[in-house]
Amino acid sequence: MGEGETNAFPLIWTQRQQPRRRGLDREQITAAAIRVADEAGLDGLTMKAVAARLGPYSPMALYRHVHSKEGLFDLMLDAATAEIPLPGEPGDDWRRDLRTLALETRRMTSRHPWFAVLVHARPPAGPHMMRRLEFMLTVLVRRGATVGDAMTYAVLIDRHVLGSALQESEEARLERRHGLDDDARLYAAIATLRELAAADGGLPHLTEWLTHPAGPTPEERFVIGLDFVLDGIAARLA
Amino acid sequence: MGEGETNAFPLIWTQRQQPRRRGLDREQITAAAIRVADEAGLDGLTMKAVAARLGPYSPMALYRHVHSKEGLFDLMLDAATAEIPLPGEPGDDWRRDLRTLALETRRMTSRHPWFAVLVHARPPAGPHMMRRLEFMLTVLVRRGATVGDAMTYAVLIDRHVLGSALQESEEARLERRHGLDDDARLYAAIATLRELAAADGGLPHLTEWLTHPAGPTPEERFVIGLDFVLDGIAARLA
DNA sequence: GCTATGCGTATACGACATAAACTTTCCAAA
DNA sequence: TTTGGAAAGTTTATGTCGTATACGCATAGC
């Protein structure tokens, strides 16, 4: 006590950044972890895999620098957030600012599908995550929203962005896990679903859709939903 | 082949329902698993815990009936979905139908916080999940939407409902894992975040909010976002 | 009563995160 | 140049998990 380290819980952001001498550091480890997760998915993100990616290291080597896997998650999330371009100042069109940020966030999550899964498991306390949120709040407050309302709107936008990302990423994970990257097998899996729906007897629309999946692409869906949210915010800002 | 069991992947719905003679069955196991998950969270949902909840059983006993933990997930998800009241037929107010369904779904997820986490990890192929989706499609198609558009709108509604549930449930999980159900510790954790934000120097709105968290309650937020989606759908149906 | 079926168990295996104790490396001061 | 000690990395070990396999036993149908 008296050290300023009386944390209610272990966020890596409240822990000492080592002075850096030689060997590994947080940055390298984070970058390696991100590469592993991008390539092998969250299932493949083990301490052993990250260590191996860094060279001839043992899994335990990482603990000197990140103290737990969750700490590594914090670092990964913030590093990925740092990839999202963030204007220094809001422009004069709030809607464009928020729309662009949402689209850029989506671009990031499509590079890093694990992001949407992890982000819900840790508090958004990294510096880049906080700065991104501050940007959204600033844009909205300048348009007359209270901070409380601005937080609500920001949360709703992120819910859509990250919800979309999560759904698409988990779908991809499922397909990968069961080898459905092969077209024939994917078709067979859909056929199984269609048969289940048809067997029920009372599911005409669902059966029809499974027979001829139609409608907007996932990307178009995302934009439609994003505009729903932005329209709603606009109506309340007015 | 020739058996109808050439599954591209193992959904429990395509597997034989045992004739039931004695001992355990899927229904009991599912109910026990749901109780365990409700009480101990997903982290506490182990095969061992479920077996123990059923009586003096070994974890391996479950495998006779569910063949894998993921199969158990499928059963849990569908059983929880079955708790959502579903009208036999749509009424004459599409918006009311969808709104009610969304609110009832939310009620279910607040009883079963694990739902929103698991639902993304498995295809929604259970009978109750399919019937619920069919209901949404029917409501929308009757109002003139194509099946493809109806699917989009249904997905957007669920994205909001489940996204909200996920965020709130993971927040609760985090708080539980770190003993923040104690008010003093929770306050300390928030103070830590505020200090981090204040230390950055460039986060006035976020710092302000962390000092005096204001704005709508989570429940109000949910309704605001739900109406954004419903308004958006209404505009496109017209 | 006999036998086949199928239910539950015991045992075992291979991942995984990570605690603790150790060894090695390298810098800084004497 | 020597030396003390901290920092970096490894080894070993522990406990938990899902689950494959092989087995014993009770029961249901004859």
TrEMBL record, chains A, B:
> Where's the HTH tetR-type domain?
29-74
One GO term under biological process is: negative regulation of DNA-templated transcription
* A GO MF label: DNA-binding transcription factor activity
Q: Which InterPro entries match?
A: Homeodomain-like_sf (IPR009057), HTH-type_TetR-like_transc_reg (IPR050109), HTH_TetR (IPR001647), Repressor_TetR_C (IPR004111), Tet_transcr_reg_TetR-rel_C_sf (IPR036271)
Record key words, sorted: DNA-binding, Transcription, Transcription regulation
Query: Which part of the chain is the Tetracycline repressor TetR C-terminal domain?
Result: 87-236
Name the UniProt record assigns to this protein: TetR family transcriptional regulator
Which organism encodes this protein? Microbispora catharanthi
Its organism's taxonomic lineage begins at: Bacteria, Bacillati, Actinomycetota, Actinomycetes, Streptosporangiales
